[in-house]
Amino acid sequence: MKPKNAMTVDVEDYFQVSAFEPYIDKKQWDSLPHRVENNTNRILDLFSQNDIKATFFTLGWVAERYPSLIKRIVSDGHELASHGYEHIRVTEQTQIEFREDITRTKKLLEDFSGHEVKGYRAASYSIVSKNLWALDVLQEAGYQYSSSIYPVKHDLYGIPDAPRFMYQPIDNKDFKEIPITTLRIFEKNLPCGGGGFFRLYPYFFSKWAFKTINLKEKQSGIFYFHPWEIDPGQPRQKQLSFKTKFRHYLNLSKMENRISSLLQDFEWDTMAAIFLKK
After folding, report:
1. What would the mean pLDDT of 37-52 be, rounded to a whole number?
2. Virtual torsion, Cα 143, 97, 179, 77, nearest 10 deg
3. How far apart are CA 88 and CA 233, in angstroms?
4. What is the CA radius of gyration of the chain?
5. Which of 163, 178, 230, 267 could form a disulfide with 256 if both were Cys (CB 3.0 to 4.6 A apart)?
6. Pairing assessment for the beta strands 79-82 and 55-58 based on DSSP bridges
7. What is the pLDDT of residues 48-71, one digit of tens each?
8. In the chain, how many domains are there?
């Protein structure tokens, strides 16, 4: 039987991405045009049309402002998980700050949804070699899994030699790290789990990569994307560096159709349903 893959959405608005931090102050967030509610509802509609269940790693900041969105996520049968409160990278937090952030967000999401929050994903995959203490803190705070480590070499994140598939990072504790999907080619891990790489590669490559993961390696893959990635009409930031502009805006107009193809070409479910099976 072919493995199911986990479909995940990192629920944040266009102005909250880490790459925009030097250009947009958090104090401006409430005064900017918000598009996350409409874009996430479009994604929920798309999932409903394809009978797909997914995991929504959601910012507490978004949940506070759009509680009806949280209620729809869970009422549609999806898994609600934590993306931290306001997209602060773990590399920028002390252990005390991190503990307060993940505890606050877990309680907030559970209060709004009425459902237990089991999973966490760090902003910009910012659990790296120097802050693996974060996994212990997550387990102590009541989380059952993290999907925060990307086993690739990247200028902003990654642990290239981390395991490529789910593992138990904390000795003698039932806590799981579930890395974003990569494909092993020429002794290197090639990112193929979504985001900007999915927009960069031609679709046939992503389809081939997931088929290889499922059929050859017999593993479940993880795919992720953001609501702003299906929104080519979002307000354009003019002061960005060329690299940031290229990464953020590349092929936004193609993303929704590619997601639709992916939903039809593979079997999908939530992180909890696939990886927390007893």
Report:
1. 98
2. 50
3. 26
4. 17
5. 230
6. parallel
7. 999 999 999 999 999 999 999 999
8. 1
- Could you write out the DSSP letters of every residue in 98-142? HHHHHHHHHHHHHHHHSS---EE--GGG---GGGTHHHHHHHHTT
- Residues 6 or more apart whose Cβ sits within 8 Å of residue 273: 4, 53, 79
The rounded distance, in Å, linking the Cα atoms of 164 and 198 is: 18
Q: Which residues fall within 8 angstroms of residue 58, CB to CB, at 6 or more apart?
A: 11, 70, 73, 80, 81, 82, 83, 109
Q: 57 pairs with which residues across the strands?
A: 10, 81
SS3 content of the chain, % helix, strand, coil (to 5): 45, 15, 40
d(CA 159, CA 167): 14
Its pTM stands at 0.96
- 255 contacts: CB under 8 Å, gap ≥ 6: 198, 199, 225, 229, 230
Q: Which two tokens stand for residue 29?
A: 């967030």
Residue 243 to residues 139, 231, 246, Cα–Cα distance (Å):
36, 19, 5
Range 71-83 average pLDDT? 98
Q: Find the distance separating the first CA and the last CA of the chain, reported in whole Å.
A: 18
| Cα distance between residue 61 and residue 170, in whole Å | 29
Owning domain of residue 79 = 5-275
- Residue 191, domain CATH: 3.20.20.370
Predicted confidence at residue 268, as pLDDT, reads 98
The one-letter amino acid at 30: D
Give the per-residue pLDDT at 75.
98
Residue 190: both structure tokens together: 């090639």
Q: At what angle do helices 252-265 and 36-49 cross, to 10 degrees?
A: 30
